[in-house]
């Protein structure tokens, strides 16, 4: 794809499969199948989901998190970077606490236009003083104190991040 082609992105983090759920929700798999790029910001927990995403995603940009085993961490970096549709994109699991996040990310990721991160399970969308866009998709399997499990979609086009949408997933029903 060239810089002129829009790139449809699905962003997830903190999937914790199978610890928090047996699998990703079907609606998320549908979104993954339709995306040009899947971004995963760590805490997979096992390599099984990584294998499945590598098979199904058109393209995958991913990092490991603090709950990921060495076998997984050896396959994806702590910080992954790519230029996609003219956007310098990075993905990392941990950015530290909310207080001071923008300043820290400006200092640590001065080479990026967009940073997707995870760890907190709390959706986040902000812009740093330097102009770095920070996005956290929350978690599609473990909402913690959030009202719903979530993931993000957005479009990268001509050097810009567009159409950012937080998707709230319906509550899971117990298996029968």
TrEMBL record:
Co-factor(s): a divalent metal cation
Entry keyword annotation includes Nucleotide-binding: no
E.C. numbers: 3.1.4.-
Top-level class of the enzyme under EC nomenclature: hydrolase
Chain ranges of the Calcineurin-like phosphoesterase domain: 8-157
Metal-binding as UniProt keyword: yes
SUPFAM superfamilies, alphabetized: Metallo-dependent phosphatases
Keyword annotations of the record: Metal-binding
Matching PANTHER family: VACUOLAR SORTING PROTEIN VPS29
Protein family according to the UniProt entry: Belongs to the metallophosphoesterase superfamily. YfcE family.
Name under which the protein is recorded: Phosphoesterase
Organism: Cellulomonas dongxiuzhuiae
Organism phylogeny: Bacteria, Bacillati, Actinomycetota, Actinomycetes, Micrococcales
């Amino acid at each position: 794809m060239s810089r002129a082609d829009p790139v449809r992105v699905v962003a997830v983090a903190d999937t914790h499969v199978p610890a928090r759920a047996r699998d990703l929700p079907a609606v998320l798999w549908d979104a993954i199948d339709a995306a040009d790029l899947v971004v995963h910001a760590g805490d997979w927990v096992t390599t099984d989901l990584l294998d499945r995403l590598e098979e199904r995603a058109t393209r995958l940009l991913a990092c490991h998190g603090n709950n990921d085993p060495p076998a997984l961490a050896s396959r994806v970096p702590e910080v992954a970077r790519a230029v996609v549709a003219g956007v310098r994109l990075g993905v990392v699991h941990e950015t530290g606490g909310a207080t001071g996040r923008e300043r820290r990310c400006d200092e640590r990721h001065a080479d990026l236009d967009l940073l997707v991160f995870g760890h907190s399970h709390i959706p986040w969308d902000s812009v740093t003083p330097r102009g770095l866009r920070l996005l956290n998709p929350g978690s599609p399997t473990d909402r913690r104190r959030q009202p719903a499990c979530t993931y993000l979609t957005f479009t990268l086009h001509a050097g810009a991040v567009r159409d950012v949408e937080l998707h709230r997933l319906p509550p899971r029903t117990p298996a029968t």
